[in-house]
Amino acid sequence: MFMKFLLALLLLLLPAIADAADVTGVPKIREGDHIQIGHIRIRLGGIDAPTADQLCLNTKGERWTCGVAARDELIKHAGGKSWTCHVRQTDRRGRQVARCEVGGEDIQKWMVANGWALAYLRFSKDYEADEKAAREAKAGMWQGAFIAPWDWRVRNKKTAILGAVKPPENARAILLASASGSVAPSPDCTIKGNVNRSGECIYHTPASRWYAKIQMKVSKGTRWFCSVEDAEAAGCRETRR
Fold first, then answer.
1. How far does the signal peptide extend, from start to end residue (predicted)?
2. Cα–Cα distance for residue pair 168/145, rounded to 1 Å
3. Could you tell me which residues are beta bridge partners of residue 98?
4. What is the DSSP string of 170-191?
5. 8 Å CB contact between 231 and 191
C-alpha cells in the first residue's frame, strides 16, 4: 500500500520535475555557446562555437576575431530577449547543457546555419545539415579559414585547418601564431598563460606581480585566456606570486 502511495506521488511530481528542467529568462551571453540566466550557467548543447580568444582568417588571409564576432552576432540576434532552455544534463564544469529557443527558434540551429558555430558531432548530429549549408554558403567562419573550436583549445602543429575553400598555405602558421601574439586577441582575453621549468601551465591575471614580465611567444609555450575558468579548464593553475 505504501509503495502504491509513493508511485502515485511520483506520478504527480513528474510534470513539476519536467518543468524544473526548463530555465527561462533574458540571458547574459558570455560566448557563442555559453550563456547565463540568473545564477545558472548554460552550455548550448550539440554545437561548439569559437571562444572569445579565437582568431580566424578572412577571404584575404587576414586575421579577424571570429570568436568575438560569434558572441556579438548572437547578442545582436537574440540578446535582450527571453530564452527558454531545455536542460538535458550537467557538464564536468558544472554548466547546464541545454537546447535553447527564442520565440520558438532553435538558437543552436541558427548559430550553425549562419557559420558562427560547428555541429558538435561527437555529441549530436542534430545540426550536421546546417553546418553543410553554412559551409556551402561560406557563412560566418566559413568565409575563409579557421580551426575547429574543439581543436583550438588544444591546438598544435598538426591541427587541421578548415574552410569553404582551400586554405592558403600559410594559414596554419598564421593561426597558430595568434595563440601567443604579443598583443591580446581581444580586450576580453588578457590573462596570460605560460609554462614554468617544471612543465606546469601557470596563468597570470593583469593584477599578478609578474604579469608585465611574461613575454608572449609561441617558442615559450605561452597563450592567452579569456577567463580564469578557461585557464583552469586547460589545466593551468594561478601563479603563487
1. 1-20
2. 8
3. 44, 87
4. THHHHHHHGGG-SS-SSTT--E
5. yes
What H or E segment, with its residue span, contains residue 129? helix 128-137
Provide the strand spans (E) within the chain.
22-25, 28-31, 34-37, 40-44, 47-48, 56-57, 63-64, 83-90, 96-102, 105-106, 118-119, 145-146, 162-163, 191-195, 201-204, 223-225, 237-238
Q: What is the mean pLDDT of residues 93-117?
A: 96
- Say which amino acid occupies 201: C
| pLDDT at 93 exceeding the cut of 60 | yes
Across residues 148-167, what is the average pLDDT?
Answer: 86
> Tens of pLDDT along 165-224?
888 888 988 887 776 677 887 777 899 998 888 888 899 999 999 899 998 876 677 888
Of 17-26, 68-77, 114-123, give the lowest mean pLDDT range.
17-26
- The DSSP bridge pattern shows strands 201-204 and 237-238 to be parallel
Which residues share a beta bridge with 86?
22, 99
CA 39 to chain centre: 19
Amino acid 200: pLDDT: 86
- The Cα angle at residue 43 between residues 108 and 235, in degrees rounded to 5: 130
**How far is 167 from 99, CA to CA, in rounded Å?**
32
Q: What is the pTM of this model?
A: 0.75
Q: Give Dmax (Cα) for the chain.
A: 74
Cα torsion 232, 92, 146, 72: sign: negative
Would you put residue 115 in left (φ > 0), alpha (ψ -120 to 50) or beta?
left
3-state secondary structure of 87: strand
Between the alpha carbon of residue 11 and those of residues 2, 16, 81, 193, the distances in Å are: 14, 10, 34, 51
